[in-house]
């Protein structure tokens, strides 16, 4: 059986104590590979390698163009290995292969290309001063970055963190989620092939609490911690990082509101709303899991929404025709099932869907749920949507903002003034109007409230992964004499 190893200091290595854990294919529910089980010892080795590569190696000392060339080569290698990378994520967590190969892997390559170019083009800012002084800002590499990733978009979210970290000259220790280790080790091999020096990108596998993950968050040699995952894990990591005052970036959970006004293009709103909740079997932080529909179109919208949801093709995620795969793990399936089983007791009605075979969940639509029902308040992270009618713009905004989360929201309307007005009033890091998940990598990405701390993307990633330094010079030669 294949073993997925750590990747430390340019080498594929097992754990010191030879510990391993099983990697389970959520479709077959069988053990597919074994994975090296890291602990504090592996975190220590990986951080030491990253520290040495940062303190004495060539990576932070290269020019942006030379580093950029290596990152572009890595992007090309990602493209050339699309099938292997896509299959790794698909078999690790059940994402349909059509999505992993046409969306996640190309976006991962783009992450490297974008940040390589962005860093080269934005490496300093000049601030001519009226006083006759000249100030400029240098964006210097921060040091060793610990990147801790979730399982729902494994390669895509890992590269979203490590691409800017590397482009800005940092070295990285990546800990992928325990359910999705495979693509990270392949990526590290490709980085070596692209010419990345040893110790610049390290990968350690294992769990979070009392394991390799936690060890990374308490290590004083780590200069930045970038984390994507659950809000409660984010709290634990912020507490751990506080000991060393290590800056953290936290991309956390969501409970996205999707507001459809009566003047919206109904068919377009239905299609986007379907994507917003059923893509990746609802295992999306940005999922539009609370769908608010203006009463005048509520019945027509719901009818069409259920029709389209019913036509989604479930099945083996390795089949290119599949649109809805299994949930990622037994543990996650059990969690989502408990939400569905609790709907009736909370006063809601399940109008379609429910539990399927194995670890699958059918597209599930819930109505009549009171605002304090668990399905309305907590992140389900599955293909479960709660649909609620509303009567006024103010009511829709009030309901949308009635959540501790604030990652994103969607608005469907043909009224331009309303689109701007409502977007301004929604508490969310991103508002999509008449669309969903359309990204410009320069734009800020992140959440308010329980959805996170900080922003990623373009200059926002630059702020986090660098130590900006101000240099102020007196350029008045006569005044200095
Ligand atoms: P999770 O919090 O369980 O785990 C994420 C990672 O953290 C894993 O690698 C895990 O091993 C590690 N970890 C857990 N406890 C740790 C600890 N104490 N110290 C260090 N590391 C620890 O999250 P998940 O279940 O993998 O992912 C799903 C969650 O991620 C959802 O809440 C989802 O909304 C969120 N998410 C957010 C975004 C975003 O951009 N805001 C994107 C994707 C997913």
TrEMBL record:
<dbReference type="InterPro" id="IPR016160">
    <property type="entry name" value="Ald_DH_CS_CYS"/>
</dbReference>
<feature type="domain" description="Aldehyde dehydrogenase">
    <location>
        <begin position="15"/>
        <end position="471"/>
    </location>
</feature>
<dbReference type="Pfam" id="PF00171">
    <property type="entry name" value="Aldedh"/>
</dbReference>
<dbReference type="InterPro" id="IPR016162">
    <property type="entry name" value="Ald_DH_N"/>
</dbReference>
<dbReference type="InterPro" id="IPR016163">
    <property type="entry name" value="Ald_DH_C"/>
</dbReference>
<keyword id="KW-0560">Oxidoreductase</keyword>
<protein>
    <submittedName>
        <fullName>Aldehyde dehydrogenase</fullName>
    </submittedName>
</protein>
<dbReference type="InterPro" id="IPR016161">
    <property type="entry name" value="Ald_DH/histidinol_DH"/>
</dbReference>
<dbReference type="InterPro" id="IPR015590">
    <property type="entry name" value="Aldehyde_DH_dom"/>
</dbReference>
């Amino acid at each position: 059986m294949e073993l997925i190893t750590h990747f430390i200091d340019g080498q594929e290595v097992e754990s010191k104590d030879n510990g391993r854990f099983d990697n389970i294919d959520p479709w077959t529910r069988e053990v597919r590979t074994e994975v090296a089980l890291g602990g504090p010892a592996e975190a220590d080795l990986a951080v030491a390698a990253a520290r040495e590569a940062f303190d004495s190696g060539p990576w932070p000392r290269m020019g942006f163009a030379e580093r950029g060339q290596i990152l572009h080569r890595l992007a090309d290698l990602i493209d050339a290995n699309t099938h292997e990378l896509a299959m790794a994520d698909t078999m690790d967590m059940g994402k349909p292969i059509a999505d992993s190969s046409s969306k996640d892997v190309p976006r991962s390559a783009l992450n490297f290309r974008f940040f390589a170019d962005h860093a080269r083009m934005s490496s300093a800012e000049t601030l001519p001063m009226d006083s006759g002084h000249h100030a400029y800002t240098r964006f210097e590499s921060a040091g060793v970055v610990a990147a801790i990733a979730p399982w729902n978009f494994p390669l895509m979210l890992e590269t979203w963190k490590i691409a800017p970290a590397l482009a800005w000259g940092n070295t990285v220790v990546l800990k992928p989620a325990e359910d999705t280790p495979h693509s990270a080790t392949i990526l590290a091999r490709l980085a070596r092939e692209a010419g990345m020096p040893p110790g610049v990108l390290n990968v350690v596998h294992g769990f979070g609490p009392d394991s390799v993950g936690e060890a990374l968050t308490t290590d004083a040699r780590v200069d930045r911690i970038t984390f994507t995952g659950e809000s409660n894990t984010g709290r634990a990591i912020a507490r751990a990082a506080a000991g060393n005052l290590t800056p953290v970036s936290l991309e956390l959970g969501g409970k996205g509101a999707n507001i459809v006004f009566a003047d919206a293009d109904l068919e377009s709103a239905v299609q986007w709303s379907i994507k917003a909740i059923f893509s990746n079997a609802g295992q999306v932080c940005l999922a539009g899991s609370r769908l608010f529909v203006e009463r005048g179109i509520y019945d027509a919208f719901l009818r069409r929404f259920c029709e389209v949801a019913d036509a989604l093709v479930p099945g083996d995620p390795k089949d290119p025709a599949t649109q809805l795969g299994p949930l990622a793990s037994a543990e996650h399936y059990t969690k989502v099932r408990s939400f569905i089983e609790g709907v009736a007791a909370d006063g809601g009605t399940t109008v379609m869907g429910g539990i399927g075979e194995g670890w699958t969940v059918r597209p599930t639509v819930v109505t009549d749920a009171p605002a304090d029902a668990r399905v309305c308040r907590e992140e389900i992270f599955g293909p479960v949507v709660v649909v609620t009618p509303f009567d006024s713009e103010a009511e829709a905004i009030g309901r949308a903002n009635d959540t501790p989360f604030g990652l994103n929201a969607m608005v469907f309307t043909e009224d331009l003034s309303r689109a701007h007005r409502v977007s301004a009033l929604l508490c969310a890091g991103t508002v999509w109007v008449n669309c969903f998940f359309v990204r410009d990598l320069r734009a800020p990405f992140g959440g308010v409230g329980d959805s996170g701390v900080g922003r990623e993307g373009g200059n926002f990633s630059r702020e986090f992964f660098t130590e900006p330094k101000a240099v102020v010079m007196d350029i008045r030669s006569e005044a200095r004499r």
